[in-house]
Structure formats: structure tokens, C-alpha cells
Design brief:
The complex is a heterodimer of chains A (304) and B (234).
Chain A (H helix, E strand, L loop, with lengths): L1 E10 L2 E11 L4 E5 L6 H8 L7 E6 L2 E2 L4 H7 E4 L11 H11 L4 H14 L15 H13 L5 E5 L7 H18 L2 E6 L2 H7 L2 E6 L2 E7 H6 L5 E7 L3 H10 L3 E6 L4 E6 L4 H10 L4 E6 L4 H9 L1
Helix pairs in contact in A: 3-4, 4-5
Chain B lengths: L1 H13 L1 H22 L9 H29 L1 H6 L5 H22 L2 H6 L7 H28 L3 H22 L5 H9 L1 H9 L5 H23 L5
Helix pairs in contact in B: 1-2, 1-5, 2-3, 3-5, 3-7, 3-8, 5-7, 5-11, 7-8, 7-10, 7-11, 8-9, 10-11
The chains are: A alpha/beta (304), B mainly alpha (234).
Chain lengths: 304, 234
């Protein structure tokens, strides 16, 4: 559905994208992950036809974004980083305008606008001026505009940035429901790993303009350095505990995190033995948990 | 094009800015009308009235045009426009037509003054129609220059200043054009705004003057189109 081949973008002498390649299949929700300034927005702007690449090609539904720009633009729903809203228009006026811009057939405009208003739960606010809406509601309107043309591909640039935690949960649920209802291919750029983990099935990780990983979230998690990570909370005798644990052959690494926490990396699950040692030393064991490998760990591991 | 036009018109007629600008324009016109015709002087010559209102247009139009593209950049809606399947011409013409409609409404309301005066004195409708046409064609030219200025920046003040500067340059040219002879002066005379506009004021509607304003407006709109498309130059 989305295919990028050797895409490069230069701003003057600064190389923002360096021959990147990736593919997103039909119906997938893919996270485009990377720290700020990694090249996420530049890639999205190229994919949506906003700017041309310096080199390489981008395809949407098999069509070259720069050779068949108008056709490609009609297939895409795009939420830029800054919500593209007109404060002087009401929600339904704005969505009708966007539907017209996106060349939705006249007889479908009202139907599509009503549908996205319902999907984004904006029914009670459809006649409210956009300037009077809260930030979360404005973001809902922005997402609504990105799907008003029933696009085959939805590109969302940092959809939850600047929202409060409640609004973040709302918007994430909305995106998940869109994938279910609209059956669209969705590419979401974010620097929030938790967001990618929650919404997406696959992640593409970009750093300094280069793709450093592209796989399913599960596969990426498995790529992490081998070993079990165990966090132990003990009240006393930390020094003695550390020394004893280091002598065990199954232990790879022991790290004293803070007043109570000890982070242990082992070759296998030896929680029972560890518990026995700490209890035997009167260490005041109060908690022991196996640490799930998070996308955050993998991300840090990859960009270092 | 029609969607952009409709949206812009809606904003002009639902925003305080639109009503304020129209209100100021009409208030100035009423003051001028009072100044020219309140005293009994048996004059029904509207040429100076339309000429003065054209000077008011010179300041009003940049205020209307600064927001056309500069505001889209500021609001972030520029990306929405540029990633929609519409052409640069559709955007430019839709926007220019909306401002032209708005200013033309203001310009057309000026015709009420000779109508008010007509029961009391004989009106030279020929001069009025020429003055009215002059102001409409001037508005068209000012709008296209304003659009170029608005495409250059996302800063309203700079856009307004550029717009004024462009118009003033075309006005000032006439000073140089009329200060000598020769081929250069002849060319300057042909591109001078004042030389073409003041023929309307004196009651003449000539094809060459109409052509001047049409070509000038086209060049302004075409430059704006190029500015919009410049982002796609790799």
C-alpha cells in the first residue's frame, strides 16, 4: 500500500533522509518511531505530496506520489503535526469544506461528514465554532478531517502530542476504532513508544534520517539483548546481597538502582534461588518482579 | 476552486474583520460624499470622489489580502491545502475571486451616492460608470499584488507592507515616466499604474487600459501560483 524506495531529502546541505526504504501493507497500522528531528515529518510530507524528495521514489497504492500526485492525494487522509483548522468555521462547515477539497463526490459529502462526526463523537459540537473547542476536541476534528474522504491510507503525524492523559487515551481509542471500521492502512508517527505498542502491529524506527529497524512489535521485542530481567526490592544488606548474587553462574549483570531496587539480568529464570539467598541473608525481601522487555528498551538499544 | 471561494466568502461575511473593514470603507465614503456634496455648489462631478475612494482601496485591499496565504501558513492549514487534490490555480483563483467579490460589493455600494443625488441634480453617468470601472479594475490589480505579498511570508505585517510596496512602486513609476522622453520613459509610462488609472477618472474606458489591468492582475496571480509551487521544486 505504501512503498518507499531509496528516499532521500536534503535541506541545503543537511541530509534529513538518507536513502530510506520501507513498506506498509494494506490494512496494517504501523508506527513510525523516532526521536524529534529523526525525519518522521519529512517522510510524511513526501508521502502526502507536500514536498518532493531529493532522490528516490514513494508509492501509494502502486502510484508514484510525484507522477500521479492528484490521484494519490485523493487516496490519502493526512493529519499534519499542527492541526489544520479554521477557527472561524463550525465543525460541520469545516468538514464539508475539507470533503470538497478532497473531491468527495457531491452526493456523498453530507453522508461522509455525518459519518465522521458520529465516528469521532462530535455530534453535539457540530455547529460549534472550532475556535470555541478544547484542545482534545480540536484534535478530534483534525482526525475527522483526515478520514472524511474515506481514504485508503491515513497518515497521522504525532496525533496525541500536547494532549492531557485523558485526551490521549480517547484519541488512541479513536484511532484503533478507525482501523477496525474503515479498514484503512494507517501510518502513525510518534516518539511515544507506549503509543506504538498500544495501537500498532508493526514499527518502523528511524534515527538521523536512516531506518534502523522495521518489524512487528513482538519481533522487535525479541530482538532485545538476551536474558531475563528481574527487579528485586529489598530493605537491608544490599551490599552483601549484591556480592552473593554476582557469584552465581546464571547471573549476567547485577545493578543497584536506588535505595531498594536491584536490577538483575540472568541467563534463565532463577527467581526462586534469588529469593532464597536474599531471605537467607535477612535482606528484607518485599517484592520481586520479572521486567517485561519494552519497546523503549529496544529503541534505546537501537539508537545507541 | 468553488470550495475555496465559498469558504473565503463565508469567513469574510461571518468575521468581525469583514464587517469592520466594510464599515470603515463605507464610513469614509460617507464622509467624502458629505465633504464633496453637502454644500450647495451645483456640482455633480463624482470623478474626484471615485479617485479618492480608490486611494482608500489602496490601504483596504492589503488588509484583506494579507490573510489569504499568510494565514494559511500561520494556522497550519497550508499543509491541508497542499495535500488536497486541487491545483494551485484553483486555490489562487478561488481566493482572489473571494476578495474581489467582497471589495466589489463595497465598490458597488458607492453607486448609491449618485443615485441619492440624482433627484436633485443632473448626474453624468458616463463619468460615474468609468470611475466605477476604474475602481473595480484597480481592486483586481491590488488583490493580485496582495496575493503575491501574502505568498511570500506568514507574517501579516510584512505581507501588508510588501503589498503596499508593490502597489506604490507601480504608482511612483509615473513620476519617472513623465520626467523625460525616450524609449525608457515610454516603457515606464506603459507600466505606470497612474497613467492608466487616471484615464478612467476622466471618464474614458479604453481597451489598452483594460488590458493593462487584466495583464497586470494575471501576472500577479501567476507569480502567486509560482510561489505556491516553489515548495515542490526539489
Amino acid at each position: 500500500m505504501i512503498k518507499v524506495e531509496n528516499l532521500s531529502k536534503k535541506y541545503g546541505s543537511f541530509l534529513a533522509l538518507d536513502r530510506i526504504n520501507f513498506e506498509v501493507n494494506e490494512g496494517e497500522i504501523v508506527a513510525f518511531l523516532g526521536p524529534n528531528g529523526a525525519g518522521k515529518t519529512t517522510t510524511m510530507r513526501i508521502l502526502t505530496g507536500f514536498m518532493p524528495p531529493t532522490e528516490g521514489k514513494a508509492f501509494i497504492s502502486g502510484m508514484d506520489v510525484y507522477e500521479e500526485t492528484t490521484k494519490v492525494k485523493a487516496l490519502i487522509g493526512y493529519l499534519p503535526e499542527n492541526p489544520p483548522l479554521y477557527p472561524e468555521l463550525t465543525v460541520s462547515e469545516y468538514l464539508t469544506y475539507v470533503a470538497e477539497l478532497k473531491k468527495v463526490p457531491k452526493d456523498l459529502i453530507k453522508k461522509n461528514v455525518d459519518k465522521v462526526i458520529e465516528l469521532t463523537d462530535l455530534g453535539e459540537r457540530k455547529n460549534t465554532l472550532i475556535q470555541l473547542l478544547s484542545k482534545g476536541l480540536k484534535q478530534r476534528v483534525s482526525i475527522a478531517q483526515s478520514i472524511v474522504n474515506s481514504p485508503a491510507v491515513i497518515i497521522l503525524d504525532e496525533p496525541t502530542v500536547g494532549l492531557d492523559p485523558v485526551q490521549v487515551v480517547e484519541i488512541r481509542n479513536l484511532i484503533k476504532s478507525l482501523a477496525g471500521i474503515e479498514k484503512s492502512t494507517i501510518l502513525i508517527s510518534t516518539h511515544l513508544l507506549s503509543e506504538a505498542q498500544e495501537i500498532c502491529s508493526k514499527a518502523i524506527i528511524i534515527n538521523n534520517g536512516k531506518i534502523i529497524a522495521e518489524d512487528s512489535i513482538e519481533a522487535l521485542k525479541q530482538k532485545q539483548k538476551p536474558g531475563f530481567k528481574i527487579i528485586v526490592k529489598a530493605l537491608r544488606n544490599h551490599k552483601k546481597i549484591l556480592e552473593s548474587l554476582k557469584k552465581m553462574p546464571e547471573i549476567i549483570e547485577v545493578e543497584y538502582k536506588n535505595n531498594e531496587d536491584i536490577l538483575i539480568t540472568t541467563k534463565e529464570d532463577i527467581r526462586e534461588e534469588i529469593a532464597r539467598i536474599i531471605v537467607g541473608m535477612d535482606g528484607g525481601l518485599i517484592e520481586m518482579t520479572q521486567k517485561e522487555s519494552s519497546l523503549e528498551d529496544i529503541f534505546l538499544q537501537l539508537i545507541q | 476552486m468553488f470550495s475555496v471561494y465559498k469558504k473565503e466568502i463565508k469567513i469574510y461575511f461571518t468575521s468581525i474583520m469583514g464587517y469592520c473593514i466594510m464599515g470603515i470603507y463605507l464610513a469614509i465614503s460617507a464622509l467624502l460624499f458629505w465633504g464633496y456634496f453637502a454644500q450647495v455648489n451645483n456640482s455633480s462631478d463624482f470623478s474626484s470622489f471615485f479617485s479618492d475612494m480608490n486611494t482608500v482601496n489602496l490601504f483596504i485591499v492589503p488588509i484583506l489580502t494579507i490573510r489569504l496565504l499568510a494565514e494559511e501558513k500561520k494556522l497550519g492549514t497550508y499543509e491541508l491545502l497542499m495535500t488536497s487534490p486541487i491545483s494551485s490555480w484553483e486555490i489562487i483563483i478561488g481566493k482572489a475571486l473571494s476578495v474581489f467579490t467582497f471589495t466589489a460589493i463595497g465598490n458597488t455600494l458607492l453607486l448609491l451616492y449618485p443615485l441619492i443625488l440624482s433627484p436633485y441634480t443632473s448626474i453624468e453617468w458616463g463619468i460615474i460608470i468609468a470611475g466605477y470601472s476604474g475602481i473595480l479594475f484597480s481592486s483586481m490589480l491590488f488583490i493580485s499584488f496582495g496575493m503575491v505579498a501574502s505568498s511570500l511570508t506568514d507574517n501579516y505585517v510584512i505581507a501588508a507592507l510588501f503589498s503596499l510596496l508593490f502597489i506604490l512602486i507601480f504608482m511612483i513609476i509615473s513620476f519617472f515616466a513623465n520626467s523625460g522622453s525616450g524609449i525608457i520613459n515610454r516603457i515606464l509610462k506603459e507600466i505606470s499604474y497612474s497613467n492608466h488609472y487616471f484615464q478612467f477618472v476622466t471618464g474614458m474606458i479604453k481597451a489598452e487600459n483594460l488590458l493593462y489591468f487584466i495583464i497586470g492582475s494575471f501576472l500577479g496571480l501567476y507569480s502567486s501560483k509560482l510561489m505556491i509551487e516553489s515548495r515542490t521544486w526539489a
